[in-house]
Design a protein that fits this description.
This protein has about 280 residues and is of the alpha/beta class. The longest helix has 26 residues. The radius of gyration is 21 Å and the shape is globular. Strands 1-2-4-5-6-7-8-9 form an 8-stranded mixed β-barrel, surrounded by 4 helices. Helix content is about 50%, strand content about 20%. The site of one magnesium ion has 3 residues, from β6.
Length: about 280
């Protein structure tokens, strides 16, 4: 119909575009206040050893409980926070809160996602140092997850910030490995402590021999470079046994637990410890 009317095509789409922009603007305005209004919470998802199934640590995952729109996924609001620079104060908050929580986890590690924009701030190292100092979390127990997109800039400054972080004792993980085009180049330029194989490779393991071949190659790469390997998005026992057989060190996914509150995670860890004792 719109086509037949020729030029009116534009008019058909305008209101929708307008609506999208309005929604975006409203979300950004709300996001500015989200921290102060205590609408942000951090959940923790267990990471386990594939060999023993024991919890080795957890990844902090941010959630936004919007007063009228309900739960908003980080896939939606993290990009907005990045585009507006809000990710810098929000990221600093996540880091400090999560470090506080993880302080009481014995020797388990805490993984925190950091966005490219945060890593490019000259003040980022100080932000991390402050979170560690205030929480009392030993640097060795903190792991920063950086997506390879962070490396796209691959600037000398970014690499300098990463090495200062490593000299603090903080560990660095490359998140979503294999989904970008610069993963290998980045591994050549910088030493990471962990590679997280993206969920898209794990999802098809049961049916796709090529997925298995790719996984095997990434694990071999990790082992050759002496880098720990973690598989994201493990949902069934079949995937776990394959990962174990192939020598992947760590796994994370719904099979072991969805992202959960700090209290639930703490209880999980205590149950595990009492079973071992
Ligand atoms: P990510 O860092 O790759 O985190 C893994 C995502 O996979 C999480 O989604 C997690 O809930 C989900 N997941 C874990 N296990 C499974 C599974 O077995 N099956 C399936 N289908 N999904 C699984 P989530 O929590 O929605 O977070 C999405 C992304 O948002 C994260 O991807 C990360 O890039 C970003 N993000 C989350 N929190 C933060 C944060 O505090 N700061 C920054 N900069 N980014 C964050
Ligand atoms: Mg992550
Ligand atoms: Mg990931
Ligand atoms: Mg991701």
């Amino acid at each position: 119909q719109a086509k037949a009317e020729g030029g009116s095509c534009l008019r058909v789409f305008e209101p929708a575009m307008d609506e999208r922009l309005r929604t975006r603007r409203a979300l950004v305005a709300d996001l500015r206040n989200a921290m102060a209004r205590q609408e942000l919470t951090i959940l923790f998802q267990p990471q386990v050893s594939t060999a023993t199934r024991r919890i080795t640590g957890a990844e902090a995952l941010l959630r936004w409980h919007h007063p009228t729109r309900g739960l908003i996924s980080p896939e939606t609001f993290i990009p907005l926070a990045e585009q507006t620079g809000l990710i810098v104060p929000i990221g600093a908050w996540v880091l400090e809160q999560a470090c506080h929580v993880a302080r009481g986890w014995g020797d388990l590690h805490l993984a925190v996602n950091v966005s490219p924009l945060q890593v490019r701030q000259a003040s980022f190292v100080a932000t991390v140092e402050q979170a560690l100092a205030r929480s009392g979390l030993p640097p060795q127990r903190l792991e920063l997850e950086i997506t390879e997109a962070a490396m796209l800039a691959n600037s000398a400054e970014t690499l300098g910030i990463l090495s200062r972080l490593r000299s603090l004792g903080v560990r660095l993980a490359m998140d979503d490995f294999g989904t970008g085009y610069s993963s290998l180049a980045t591994l050549q330029r910088f030493r990471f402590d962990k590679i997280k194989v993206d969920r898209s490779f794990i999802r098809h393991l049961a049916r796709d021999a090529r997925a298995v071949a790719l996984l095997r190659a990434v694990i071999a790469l990790g082992s050759a470079l002496d880098v720990t390997t973690n598989a994201e998005g493990v949902e069934d026992e079949g995937q776990l046994s394959l990962l174990r057989a192939e020598g992947c060190d760590e796994a994370q996914g719904y099979l072991f637990g969805r992202p959960m509150s700090a209290a639930e995670f703490h209880a999980r860890v205590n149950r595990q410890d009492s079973r071992a004792a």
